Amino acid sequence: MTPKIGVLVVDDDFRVAKLHAEFVNRIEGFVVVGVVHTGNAAVEAARAKQPDLVLLDLYLPDEDGLSVLSRLREGDGPHADVIAITAARDLPSIRTAMQRGVVHYLVKPFPFRTLADRLTAYRTLWNQTRSNADVGQNEVDRLFGLMRPGDSATQLPKGHSEPTMALVQAAFADPDADWSTAEVAQRTGISRATAQRYLSLLLRDGTLELHLRYGAAGRPEHRYRRTR
Q1: Does domain 162-226 have CATH number 1.10.10.10?
Q2: How confident is the model over 106-123, as pLDDT tens digits?
Q3: What is the pLDDT of residue 109?
Q4: Per-residue b/e over 121-152, b at no fewer than 16 CB within 10 Å?
Q5: Is the Cα torsion angle 106, 108, 113, 119 positive or negative in sign?
């Protein structure tokens, strides 16, 4: 079994931190190992809990998040990857964060579908870079492109919400997930009709593909899985 990716959530806003932690725990393959609200607590938690990924706010009450980012890189041994999640949108902050090794930079506010996309992409990157195999330039380009999923967070049609779309997408976080409409509704807590609307969107944009499962009798069952 593939181990879960441990995530440390760092945000000075207690409500936002709790919301992010709850959302991360819903996504297949991730588990929150800590939630903290200051820079010092972030460094201490990273050393104690050894997370694989840190969701790091740059506006912290005791220390600038960019300084925290540098401190997370100190010392020997494995260092956690970092996704900056912040309201800081000035170019010097963005450039410094890039120079200090963030794997992505999300500007608040953002739809939860965007966070789901980035975490799903990170999980793919994390799984595919755990071996010591040599790769060619094409594979290097593909790996670097995983955290840049293009226009996946485009505007949803009227009557659809980003949080609901994120929930439906999270149901297919496991690449082997294969669900019917009823199963998606049950896993996400939404109605079957609502699940069908969102599944249809993901089918149209190529995220999911439809196949039929034939039983012993009756009509074949429509099932969805990630496009392969």
Answers
A1: yes
A2: 988 877 778 888 888 888
A3: 81
A4: bbbbbbeeeeeeeeeeeeeeeeeeebbeeeeb
A5: positive
Could you give the 3-state DSSP secondary structure of residue 151? coil
Residue 145 contacts residue 195 (beta carbons within 8 Å): no
Strand ordering across the sheet containing 53-56: 30-36, 5-10, 53-56, 81-86, 104-107
**Amino acid identity, residue 20?**
H
Q: What separation in angstroms does the CA of 79 have from each of 69, 128, 212?
A: 11, 17, 44
The CATH homologous superfamily of the domain defined by 5-130: Response regulator (3.40.50.2300)
Q: How far apart are CA 85 and CA 65, in angstroms?
A: 10
Rounded CA gap, 79 and 47, in Å? 9
What residues contact residue 48 under an 8 Å CB cut-off, 6+ apart? none
CB atoms under 10 Å from CB of 202, counted, come to 18
Low-confidence ranges of the chain (pLDDT < 50): 151-154
List pLDDT tens digits, range 143-180: 777 776 554 444 567 788 777 887 888 788 777 889 99
Task: Pinpoint the residues of the chain covered by CATH 3.40.50.2300.
Answer: 5-130
Kindly report the pTM of this predicted structure.
0.65
Query: Whole-angstrom Cα distance, residue 147 to residue 133?
Result: 21
pLDDT for 24 = 92
Q: List where CATH 1.10.10.10 sits in the chain.
A: 162-226
